[in-house]
Amino acid sequence: MKLLNLDFKRIAHDTFRIAGSMVIYTDPFKVTKRDDADIVVISHEHFDHLSLEDLNKVIVPGTTIIASPLCKEGLQKVKVKEMRFLDPGGRLTVGTPKTGVVQVEAVPAYNLNKFREPGKTFHPQGEKRLGYLIRMDGTTVYFAGDSDLTPEMKSIRCDIAMLPVSGTYVMTAEEAAEAAAAINPKIAVPMHYGAIVGSDADAQKFKSLVKNCQVEIV
């Protein structure tokens, strides 16, 4: 699906193929076809985000992997041209003016009110799980990762916001609609449903609740 000037394909869960001057994959999981990614961003170490079986279907020797520091152990045997582990606030520029330039900025992703047990969230603040701001071909895409509506998220500015909607481990559809209102992108895209938790109904509910911007279910 064409969103602004970029092509988006949702593979499953949080996995998207975003194509412009480069091909970018987010959190490869349940990948069915071999592909050549220029860049892969990995938000954190959980199995549905860092899957070596799926990652190996999209990387080539020239791929750049950008990941949370929590992924170091899981990626230690992966061989690509460049592998960078970013803390929240970290930035990396990939490419050249000839091939195209992509700028990636890591932003915090964590839970405020989703608990595995009393007092312990699934994705605790301060553990360096990430979302990403990806700037390609003049368009800024926000990939939220596994997150609730955090104070940091409210300062995000982007053209396209990819927001989790399934609840349990991430924002509910209602919370994601609040995030869309706070971020105010041109387009919001629901994600994190249909594989582990959540269903198409969560994406549709999100679409029905968002009033401030266009919503595209990819």
Structure in words:
This protein is mainly beta. The protein contains three helices and 16 strands. The protein has helices at residues 52-58, 173-183, 200-209; strands spanning 2-3, 6-12, 15-19, 23-26, 39-42, 64-67, 82-85, 91-96, 100-108, 115-117, 120-121, 130-136, 139-143, 160-164, 187-191, 214-215. The strands form three sheets. The protein has a seven-stranded mixed sheet with strand order 1-2-3-4-5-6-7, with no helix packed on it. Strand 5, helix 1 (52-58) and strand 6 (64-67) form a beta-alpha-beta unit.
**Unreliable spans:** none
Gap between N and C termini, in Å? 7 Å
Q: Biggest β-sheet: count, sense, barrel?
A: 7 strands, mixed
Question: What is the mean pLDDT?
Answer: 94
How much beta, percentage-wise?
Answer: 25-35%
SSE order: EEEEEHEEEEEEEEEHEHE
Tally of helical runs: 3
Shape: globular
Number of strands: 16
Counting helices, strands and paired strands, the structural category is mainly beta
Taking Cα atoms only, what radius of gyration do you get, to the nearest Å?
16 Å
Percent helix range:
10-25%
Sequence of strands across the biggest β-sheet? 1-2-3-4-5-6-7
